[in-house]
Amino acid sequence: MPFAVYVLGLAVFAQGTSEFMLSGLVSGIAADLEVSIPAAGLLTSAFAVGMVIGAPLMALFSRTWPRRRALLTFLTAFVAAHVVGALTPSYEVLLATRIVGALANAGFWAVALVAAIAMVEPAARARATSVVVGGVTVACVVGVPAGALLGEHLGWRAAFWAVAVVSLPALAAIVVSVPDERPTTSGGDAPQASVASESPSVRAELRSLTGRRVLLTLLTMALVQGATFCAFSYLEPLATRVTGLGAGWVPALLALFGVGSLVGVTLSGRVADARRNTLVAAGMASLALGWIALALGAMSPVATVALVFVQGMLAFGTGSAMISQVFQLAPGAPTLAGSFATAAFNIGAAAGPWLGGLTIDAGFGFRSPVWVSAALMALALTTAAVTRLACPLPLTKATVVMKS
Predict the structure, then answer these.
(1) How many helices (DSSP H) and strands (DSSP E) are in the chain?
(2) Average pLDDT, the chain
(3) Whole-angstrom distance, CA of residue 325 vs CA of residue 404
(4) DSSP state string for 88-149
């Protein structure tokens, strides 16, 4: 695996830390900027919305740029947004920096996914994708708890400074390790002189991404991620108020979920290139059963701890395989496929917690988000079945090779 792919994973680690760390900083931000806790919570929502909107927009904006230039531009903007955020005394300015940071993050994600698979052989593309996605899982294991710890002892601004500082080595490494070449129709690299003849038009890329099979696959991905983040977002009240674990267990459970996620993307990267469709189908079915098992067994500490690890592993292992599946299904969209996959991921990440919150507000208890996760997985399995029946892959020689 090229060193540059791991560099992209490091940058995604810093950005993933920023995306999720505010869950442990909300109270400090609200007190310091003299706003309500719900207003501070909007900073997380603003980031998610920026990711959904920014992924396709930033990919379109930078689609003809050399990849190294695009990655450096987006990562520099991300660092600058966090420096301004760490310095500002204004809630409005901080909110604006979260949106700018999300747009930069979305653009980086879209280019990084394309760049990673372009730097490896076709047989290693799922593994390269898993390395990039693995940055998010490491953020869950290390970055988010570390951000919360910094916020507790040094104030929330220290966490913003830390994200900016961690991004600097990635900036330097991108300069020396990522090829400064433009995207091509095949998703590989080509000399800059041939870009005009080899880069597909925006219309051609959008046509490739708006086929029924691709759209249904993106919908399935959003449902899977919605299920994951619905349960994950309310893990703390589930563990403390249903399972009966002490508050001290919560960081350990969050880290355990992150460890499972890291194991999942690592194993997925080694298996998905040869058995992608089988892995996705088995992962989705196992996730559905796992959420049902957690909902039924949430009063057992042993079952809860075990299932948190297993579900983290299944969720991110399946998710990273689905991202590579989008690239497989839309070969005519080498620059926009990653952005659409990123948008689908974040739509699920935003919708899942909202749906889980609705059930809690309706009085169904803190176990109800896990049942919502199970229901979302049932919808995901149904959508996947419809996709397979209504939009079968053409039985070409290439398809037979790709099928598991």
Answers:
(1) 17, 2
(2) 82
(3) 12
(4) ---HHHHHHHHHHHHHHHHHHHHHHHHHHHHTS-GGGHHHHHHHHHHHHHHIIIIIHHHHHH
| E-only strand ranges, 17-83 | none
Of 343, 355, 377, the residue nearest 218 (C-alpha): 343
3-class secondary-structure state, position 245:
coil
Mean pLDDT of 236-254: 85
Q: How confident is the model over 363-389, as pLDDT tens digits? A: 999 999 999 999 999 999 999 999 887
CA 363, 365, 366, 372 torsion: positive or negative? negative
- Give exposure, 351-366, as e/b (b: 16+ Cβ within 10 Å): bbbebbbebbeeeeeb
Beta-ladder partners of 189:
183
Q: In this structure, what token pair is assigned to residue 270?
A: 């080694």
Q: How far apart are CA 52 and CA 364, in angstroms?
A: 29
Helix (H) or strand (E) holding 300: none
Which pLDDT band holds residue 10 (cuts at 50, 70, 90)?
Answer: confident
Coil, strand, or helix at residue 191? coil
Read off the pLDDT of residues 194-207 as tens digits, 9 standing for 90 and up.
Answer: 433 456 777 888 88
How many of the other CB atoms lie within 10 Å of CB of 246?
8
Neighbours of 92 (CB within 10 A): 10
d(CA 63, CA 60): 5
Comparing CA positions, the residue from 144, 168, 122 lying closest to residue 11 is: 168
* Model confidence, pTM: 0.75
Cα separation, 165 vs 17, in Å, equals 12
Phi, psi of 189 (to 5 degrees): -110, 150
Quote the pLDDT of residue 37: 67
